[in-house]
Amino acid sequence: xxxxxxxxxxxxxxxxxxxxxxxxxxxxxxxxxxxxxxxxxxxxxxxxxxxxxxxxxxxxxxxxxxxxxxxxxxxxxxxxxxxxxxxxxxxxxxxxxxxxxxxxxxxxxxxxxxxxxxxxxxxxxxxxxxxxxxxxxxxxxxxxxxxxxxxxxxxxxxxxxxxxxxxxxxxxxxxxxxxxxxxxxxxxxxxxxxxxxxxxxxxxxxxxxxxxxxxxxxxxxxx
Amino acid sequence: xxxxxxxxxxxxxxxxxxxxxxxxxxxxxxxxxxxxxxxxxxxxxxxxxxxxxxxxxxxxxxxxxxxxxxxxxxxxxxxxxxxxxxxxxxxxxxxxxxxxxxxxxxxxxxxxxxxxxxxxxxxxxxxxxxxxxxxxxxxxxxxxxxxxxxxxxxxxxxxxxxxxxxxxxxxxxxxxxxxxxxxxxxxxxxxxxxxxxxxxxxxxxxxxxxxxxxxxxxxxxxxxxxxxxxxxxxxxxxxxxxx
Lengths: 223, 243
Prior knowledge:
By secondary structure, chain A is mainly alpha-helical. Helix content of chain A is about 75%, strand content about 0%. Chain A has a single domain (about 5-220), classed as MetI-like (MetI-like fold, Orthogonal Bundle), CATH 1.10.3720.10.
């Protein structure tokens, strides 16, 4: 067999469309899991036992079920009880919920790592709980969590390839179609491999930059 | 006035404060002395509501700290400086100082930051006002901590072993600022191991031993025959002076 990438040339626009869809779902899912993860982390570290338990149950459920099963349940299961959601929305929601479970765990450990004395200083100065969470707890926890959050988000990007199983022609879905049209799976999946590697490599570089930027003033003795 | 009556506090089986009565009036500087584990820090943490008290009553200007609604009023009236500074690591010195005035007293940000700079200048930190805590020395951090407490214009300053984490040179930096505050009439509750300094700035000395206040005397009397007549005080003072 001859390795020939040129046969893919005319399929590039189609593949790029898929890549664009991947980008959109991932961006929305990252935002969704960040918001959900923050709320759940707040609930898990709150003083309310009910919120604690509820959020722990959520994390345990969604971390312990294969993503593809969750996805099938949302996309093929829910219509049986009259809930129809299109593939794109289902994908974003499922990824946000699953990602939110992991994200909340990372943020929670970031919160628990904060020196309690810092929170006490905020309390005695009369700041409201919500202000302490917004202005003190979250900024400190996020700074510490940037790298592990990056791993979660990279995992989420890779997980997005599973969305091809619910008819969403994102990058992997488009590649599957091109492979079956051209009968050149080697070239097609080679390109796919490189594309995902490049995408996640790019994201991990961004994460590294963000981490350095957020922690730029935390080095001892630097001016 | 800070008024403490019949205060009891235990952690599990350990009774840390066992019936404390103490009153601190405006303009007084009360130093709380006692060996480690005598309950000094816990006393401060009860006054600012960081610990729930088991029995007794603490009021700050008649606001009861054990009632959640009154605690916030009580906290507005007192400022706390901590042993380990507890600065907000993601904020500059100015931001550390200006945060509570902006959020709690609703002072416009620009004005709060200008006042923060003025406070930092008064403790010799105008050059370091935009530095982050990690970029400051221990003594500088504690001076920021003092400014943060003062920014709320508290009626009472609660100082919890504020020099214990500092070397002698940095301790001197911080103590000179406290001496100025005392001279300026700031009311202080000063938990400390710096006996000589306590002697020089305090109007009164309270001595804690095993959760009980065994002496509450004007400074002069504490360091005279009257204080030395209490065996535990005499033992403590002679030991501390040797160290």
